[in-house]
Amino acid sequence: FNQEEDGLLGSQDFVDNFINKNGHSLEFVHILEMIGYCDKTSGSQLVPPGLPIKITDIGDFITVIANKDSNKFVSPLLNAASTYTPDLPVKALKVFLGIEKFFPHLLRSDHSPFWTSKIPAFMWTDTSEFRNPNYHRVTDTPDTLDYDFLRSVTKLLVAQVIEHVK
After folding, report:
1. Is residue 23 scored above 90 in pLDDT?
2. What angle do CA 61, 3, 102 make, to 5 degrees?
3. pTM above 0.85, yes or no
């Protein structure tokens, strides 16, 4: 969605004026937020303070963040990962009881308006600035991405969508 950096204006407008006002319904939403940066060196991965997730300091995984309306889809995703992308480390953060309100990092992408409207959504992320030193810098160019990692993430996303509609 456009204007994500301006307060999620694009995704909020989509939810408010397309989904809610027109009576449309969505079964599930996948938001891709920075999915192509991988760094396999020790110390390359940071964690936002207080975030309840255990990860290594090596930034070689994709993270999928779910809330109370989408947590039930985490196990099928992890099953799809073990089947279709066994070499891709996948971390899942299940957020319960509205605790995301206490961790602003969990609400700053386009999945947030969907969560607010109780539409199940995943945010897929390589953890952006907690891994990628080029985040929001002029050095954030295509040559800094890991295309094998990006291909694996994309393969998992496609497998998840296909498995979900079966």
Report:
1. no
2. 55
3. yes
Chain CA centroid to CA 82, Å? 18
Tokens (6 digits) for 101: 């309100």
**pLDDT, greater one: 14 or 23:** 14
> What count of residues does the chain have?
166
Confidence band of 80 (pLDDT split at 50, 70, 90): very high
Q: In what order do the strands lie in the sheet with 62-66?
A: 29-33, 121-125, 62-66, 90-94
Determine the average pLDDT of the residues in 155-159: 96
